[in-house]
What does this fold into?
Amino acid sequence: MDIEHLTAAQAAEHANRARQALSAGAAHITPTTIRSWVHRGHLTATGLAADNRSRTYRLADVARAELKTRARALRHVGT
It folds into this structure.
């Protein structure tokens, strides 16, 4: 796995670790969440994965998007 460029599933896995720790497991990030962040302008795809179908995202950008959306997400899970 290229740690610099991640697919939506890999990005969700990385962002989910931080979100799970802060919400005691209540908040969860899925590949659909990553695509939603793209749609909402929180995250931008940087290229294509080896399969030439899946978009990739920079790890730093995923972390930034997770931080940007964290407060709202945690309010919704009551943390």
Q: What stands out?
A: DSSP finds three helices and three strands in the chain. The two ends are 33 Å apart (CA to CA). The beta strands are 5-6, 47-48, 55-58.
